[in-house]
Design brief:
This is Twin-arginine translocation signal domain-containing protein. This protein has helices at residues 5-25, 33-37, 41-60, 62-72, 75-90, 103-116, 131-151, 157-174, 182-198, 202-212, 231-246, 251-264, 293-303, 306-318, 332-338, 383-386, 572-575, and strands at residues 272-273, 287-288, 356-360, 365-370, 373-378, 400-404, 407-416, 428-431, 436-447, 464-465, 470-471, 480-494, 497-506, 510-517, 522-524, 527-528, 535-537, 543-547, 550-555, 586-593, 596-602. By secondary structure, it is of the alpha+beta class.
Length: 603
């Protein structure tokens, strides 16, 4: 007979406390050589040095963090600050180990967190009495409660007592409250698992079971439904790993493994992660592999996976000389102390994938690696299916990206001026005999008179959607006279670069190809576009973009003139609200007029 969830969780707390204590025992001058040999000393030294260096920053910013908590309900920065101070307090190799000067700020933080908590156990954090936002803080507070309990130092008894009150109070709201987004479910589960590991309660385990019974929102390709390089490494993967450990659900390791396998193919040589396919806000920002670091490390050790070990080793090798997103380098120490297994020496790295073609059919994404180049093709936006621009949808119109060493083409887009419907957004991407194909068909209607049975003598028709605007015209019941625009892009490798054959028709409209290069390089062969910052036009011949020793040559130009203006039309959905889609960087426009057949070459 299997143990009850409560017994399982309590056993894991005791085992976890023993594991943390064992790791703590490997630190300090009293540690034996054998004990130290069971850990990756350079890894721990890197984190310890970074965590110690963060202490002054945290203490200097303490008043600001407390003001954010007391006045705005921002609990997460306070919980993170307390987590950092706790990690260096319990870790014997830290310069601030059992530093009495930390007790007062730790007490200020935990007392303020207790005072800001509502009667239902929740915090606001930008949303009223928010269970998911509370869960983010509770995961951190549960982690550091376990560290302090394992350390058992008398000076932190008061901090631990207050933490216990906070955690138990939060359990009430988290075991009954709701969420907003898919990843919130797993964060709430992780928070409840933390609390349950200390004080088992059937209400917690029932709620965890109910959320998990919905199934993990993961595609066959390994991406979660949000397709995000923010929420996978910061929320979903860590939450599933916590649940796997604390609730004895080893099958959840498989979800994390599949996500990391997909992520391996999204990594750039400098540690950036491809985000063009995301359904969240990071579809238009740059994210970095550092947030995935401990997940790659944990799975490398668990499964003796040399590929994952290579990624984890690369992050460690870059150390402080890389970009960290939400988690500063020193903040990882607490996670390692909480999960001591990840401090073991990595298995032998077998190397990250060198040359590959990775086609993620679930996301409409293709990634191609060859030598020092990385290519991205994207035909998986949600727009062809839902015809809407909204939070939670993939709508990035970039359909091609290319890195040639340090020379980076961050975005290639196509914008026809067709009824102000906006950019070309491919319906899919498919393999061809010599490369790849992207395509889309959009249409707009002229509305004809309503049939007699739908006419109203008072002229008061319902407000309905035309596809680009709303009006009291009862559009669904009107016959239409359609205008159609078809676009196809065929992409093939050629001479170490790419040929992109663009065909647009049948309607006659002006259009612009927009190439956006990473800021910091040098453009030649182009002319500035008046009134548009960092925007140029390639009128004839070929242009070059140079970054360091690497050069991308692009073209040819396709002329200019009033019938093919150097204008990118984002579409009425954006322009009506004063929004814009201009990517960051140096833009080059190649203009034309449909019907058009044009070959863009990149070398």
């Amino acid at each position: 007979m299997s143990p009850s969830p409560s017994h399982v969780s309590r056993r894991h707390f005791l085992a976890g406390t023993a594991a943390v204590s064992a790791l703590l025992a490997t630190a300090g001058p009293q540690a034996t050589a054998a004990a130290r040999g069971r850990t990756d000393k350079p890894f721990l030294e890197l984190l310890t040095k970074a965590a110690d260096a963060r202490v002054a920053e945290v203490l200097d910013g303490l008043d600001t963090v407390l003001d954010q908590l007391n006045n705005l309900g921002q609990a997460r920065p306070a919980a993170r600050s307390l987590r950092l101070l706790t990690s260096v307090h319990v870790w014997a190799d830290a310069r601030h180990h059992h530093d009495g000067a930390l007790i007062a700020p730790m007490t200020r933080l935990v007392d303020a967190l207790a005072a800001a908590q509502f009667d239902d156990g929740l915090y606001d954090q930008g949303a009223v009495h928010s269970p998911p936002d509370t869960a983010f803080s509770i995961v951190d507070l549960g982690m550091l409660y376990g560290l302090l309990a394992a350390d058992g130092h008398t000076t932190t008894e008061g901090v631990r007592a207050t933490l216990k009150k906070i955690l138990l109070k939060a359990g009430e709201g988290l075991s009954t409250g709701g969420v907003h987004t898919p990843n919130h479910r797993w964060k709430v589960c992780a928070a409840l698992a933390r609390i349950n590991s200390f004080w088992p309660d059937a209400r917690y385990t029932r709620r965890i079971d109910a959320w998990l019974a919905e199934g993990i929102d993961q595609y066959d390709s390994g991406q979660y439904s949000e397709r995000s390089a923010t929420y996978a490494p910061i929320v979903t993967n860590p939450s599933l790993l916590t649940l796997a450990r604390l609730t004895e659900r080893p099958r959840l390791y498989e979800n994390v493994r599949r996500n990391l396998e997909a992520t391996v193919h999204l990594l750039e040589p400098d540690g950036e992660v491809e985000t063009v396919h995301s359904r969240r806000q990071d579809q238009k920002t740059v994210k970095h592999v550092s947030e995935y670091w401990l997940q790659f490390r944990a799975l490398a050790l668990r499964e003796k996976d040399g590929r994952f070990a290579a990624v984890a080793a690369a992050v460690q090798r870059r150390g402080a000389d890389q970009t960290f997103d939400e988690t500063p380098l020193g903040d990882f120490l607490a996670e390692v102390l909480d999960h001591p297994e990840v401090a073991a020496p990595l298995p032998k790295a077998t190397g990250e994938p060198g040359e590959f073609t990775f086609h993620d059919k679930d996301c409409g994404l293709v990634r191609i690696a060859k030598g020092n180049t990385r290519t991205t093709l994207f035909g998986g936006t949600d727009f062809p299916d839902v015809h809407a621009i909204s939070s939670g949808l993939s709508t990035n119109p970039t359909f091609f990206k290319w890195r040639k060493g340090a020379a980076i083409l961050d975005s290639l887009r196509l914008s026809p001026q067709f009824f102000s419907l906006g950019h070309f957004r491919a319906e899919d991407v498919a393999r061809t005999a010599d490369g790849w194909r992207l395509w889309a068909e959009v249409r707009a209607g002229y509305h004809l008179p309503l049939p007699p049975q739908h006419r109203r003598s008072d002229g008061r028709y319902p407000l309905t959607d035309d596809g680009r605007f709303w009006s009291a015209m009862d559009f669904p019941h009107r016959p239409k006279e359609w205008r159609t625009l078809r676009t196809e892009v065929r992409i093939a490798e050629a001479d170490g670069g790419w040929n992109l054959d663009v065909e647009v028709g049948e309607s006659e409209v002006p259009l612009a190809l927009e190439l956006c290069f990473r800021s910091g390089g040098r453009l030649t062969g182009v002319v500035p576009v008046s009134g548009q910052r960092d925007t140029y036009q390639l009128v004839e011949g070929y242009g070059t973009y140079t970054a360091g020793d690497d050069v991308i040559t692009f073209g040819p130009g396709n002329g200019s003139g009033p019938r093919q203006p150097a204008v990118v039309d984002p579409g009425e959905r954006y322009s009506w609200m004063g929004g814009e889609l201009t990517p960051a960087g140096q833009r080059v426009l190649i203009t034309g007029r449909a019907p058009l057949r044009y070959r863009l070459t990149l070398r």
